[in-house]
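note to self: dont lose this again. the chain is below, predicted strucutre after it. 327 aa total, dont forget to put it in the shared folder this time
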Amino acid sequence: MNDELMHATGDDPSWSESYYFNFVDPVQKIGMFTRVGFRPGNGWADALHVIYLAGRRVIFTYGRRDITSDLSQYDDDLNVGDLTIRCDNPHQKWQIIYNGPGQDIPDAEILLERRKLRKPDWFTPTEMNMALTFDCTTQPHYAASGERGHFEQSGQVTGNIQVGAESYDINGFGVRDKSWGPRDWGASLATTEKPSEQHSGPAPFVNWFSMNFGDYAALGGACQRSSDGFMRGQGWIQRDGKSLELSNVTIETQYKPDSIIHESIVLQATTEDGESIHITGRISSVCPTKIPMQQGATFINEGLAEFEWDGRQGFGIAEHWHAVSLA
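---
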């Protein structure tokens, strides 16, 4: 089956089929993440689309549409709100198009606060018009396949973004992924254990990372919080036309004082051919996404990051998931 298309919906009410894209323009330091998710158990699809501009400024957009349980009818209709994604050639070329309103937010960290506590001028309404092409530069890397699957793929992104009277010609690198199957946003995954003394402070339960070092290499993967408090996981690296597994992945994070906003990370890993990797990352801007849960909320904090690896400069997304009690 062509995994770029929709899959048969499973019986789990939390079934989701999602498409995700990101990029960073290394010269202008402009970035993006886009996620379109189809949730037949809920009867809707939604689209979260964010552009990072200078400083901590973001253009934030969100849209929804009603759907049925037969997702196959949306293979050629991946339109949600004012966002359209379109596959021109499976695993080779995609279009990401947005024409509509957005929230121009000077500092995205405001999204951690409850809406009723934000100042009246926390955002300015704007119009955004965007047309980007994602040209895949590698073959997809599968973390899982079959009835419940997930793959990631790196690429180059070009096009134009207009925000009000501002216009930006884009040339950057990014990562896309596709997943299908049950999607739990965190309540059952987040441990209620307190962090150990060695790891006091925020205790994310998932750290996902996406890194592009120009056309030299791309890396991706995820860590989960282990019983000893460390974030451990696995991933992949694509370089010189080859895709290798990453094992023994660990991520250590420094946070803004008294906050779940991350400011820097250190990633260590081992490739399947034995190479040790040590990467440091500095987070320039974080855009939190709040997902309400029964006992609180999951905050998925998407951090625009600049990475350093053996003297090479890279860019990407460092994503941290936090379970927060709102009691």
